[in-house]
Amino acid sequence: MNARRGTLLVLSLIVIVTAAAGIPWYIASEDAQRPELEAHPTTLQLPPGVTLESLERVEVHEVIDGDTIQISKDGDLSPVRYYGIDTPERGERCYREALDRNEHLLTDDIYLLPDARDNDGNRPLRYIFLEDGSSLDATLVAEGFAYAWRRDGRYRDQIVALEEEAKAAGRGCLWAPEGQ
Predict the structure, then answer these.
(1) Residue 47 CB: number of other CB atoms within 10 A?
(2) How many helices (H) and strands (E) does the chain have?
(3) Are 94 and 145 spatial neighbours (Cβ–Cβ below 8 Å)?
(4) DSSP characters over 45-110
């Protein structure tokens, strides 16, 4: 009788441990099924007479979401919204993927380029350029993690074209065929 209880206890513990180990796997299984990333670092031509070094250089303090960061300049923190793009909001499909890709692409220091519309509510709007000269805004759209902003902006037509290309190629979370 005691051997039987011991065996049942051991089997019960095995089931409990297996279930406990399987719960995080089950929760993360949707993330584990993300489509392969097709990297498309994209550059945008800076305006005439403007160089990367002449742009405002700031330090990234925190990534807020797929198209907003907190920057640090001279010890002050402020949010910056990316110009020319829109990424899914929290709770929407592809939110996590856009946030993850934004975090992955960002470097410690970035360069900011303003355009005609300076603010989005309380946040300044800026095109984001990385140290290698690539455009973070354009790259997120080209890789299928952001939508192009169609109303205005210096690079509107180029970014819209990048979105159409990404859509046609089925790139990224936004445009990959369902189930991939």
Answers:
(1) 9
(2) 5, 8
(3) yes
(4) PPPTT--GGGSEEEEEEEE-SSSEEEEEETTEEEEEEETTEE-PPTTSTTHHHHHHHHHHH--SEE
pLDDT in tens, 102-112: 999 999 999 99
Integer Cα distance of 99 and 105 in angstroms: 10
Residues 6+ apart with CB under 8 A from 145: 66, 87, 94, 97, 98, 101, 102, 172, 173, 174
pLDDT score at 12: 72
Backbone φ and ψ of 157, nearest 5°:
-60, -40
Quick one: pLDDT at residue 65?
Answer: 96
